[in-house]
Each structure stands twice: as structure tokens, then as C-alpha cells.
Amino acid sequence: MAKNNFSPEEAEVEYARSEKGLRFQLIEGKALAQSDIKITFEDLKSFTTKSIRQQMAQFGQINPTDEEVQGIVARVLANQEEVKRLSDQVVADKMLQLFKEKQIRQLKK
Predict the structure, then answer these.
(1) pLDDT digits over 3-55, tens only?
(2) Is the CB of residue 77 less than 8 Å from the CB of residue 44?
(3) Summary count for the chain: helices (H), strands (E)
(4) Residue 86, burial from CB neighbour count under 10 angstroms (0-12, 13-18, 19+)
(5) Global pTM?
(6) Dihedral sign for Cα atoms in the order 20, 23, 29, 35
(7) What is the per-residue DSSP string for 64-105?
(8) Dist CA 9 CA 46 (whole Å)
(9) Under a CB-based contact definition with an 8 Å cutoff, are residues 1 and 62 in contact?
(10) How far apart are CA 75 and CA 85, in angstroms?
């Protein structure tokens, strides 16, 4: 494992960045728990399928077969880093939807 030698200024900047990230994760975790938001494999698969179809359309493949898309989805979901990244996006989408719904309810009051 490589050892990073930071200057005091660099260490301070890195600490502040890490602290903000940890705070966000704690807030996000609490919001997810309070709102009972859960991600299922079907949520992840559906999100990935939609994303793959959008990307294919951007590159001119307007009507890919379900077999083609599901093959790509299977390969993407076999990669743990991609699963983590996509899971984060699904969580962000669900939280955004929750916040929008709460805002609409508040505006109606």
C-alpha cells in the first residue's frame, strides 16, 4: 500500500473533503431509513436496462432487441464497481422522487 505524504495544507483540504462526504453519507443513510427506501435487484435491473437503451439510442441503435439489451445488462451487473455506481444512482433517483413528493404535499397545504 502506497503511503501518501501530504503537506499540512493538502491534508486539511483532504480532511474537509472526507468530512463532507461522510456527513452526506450519514444524512443519506438516515433519510433512506426514515423513508423506508430500499433498492431491489429488480430496481437495479430496470434502471440499468433503461440506461442501456438510452445509451444505445444515442449511438443510433434505436430498436435493439430485448436479448441484446439483457445480455449487456447481465454483463454490467456482473461488475461490482458498476453495481455500486448504479445503486448509488438508483438511491439518488428515489430520494429525489421522495423530496419532490414531499415538496408537492407542502405546497398544496
Answers:
(1) 568 788 888 888 888 888 888 788 877 877 788 888 899 999 999 999 999 99
(2) yes
(3) 4, 0
(4) buried
(5) 0.69
(6) negative
(7) --HHHHHHHHHHHHT-HHHHHHHHHHHHHHHHHHHHHHHHHH
(8) 44
(9) no
(10) 14
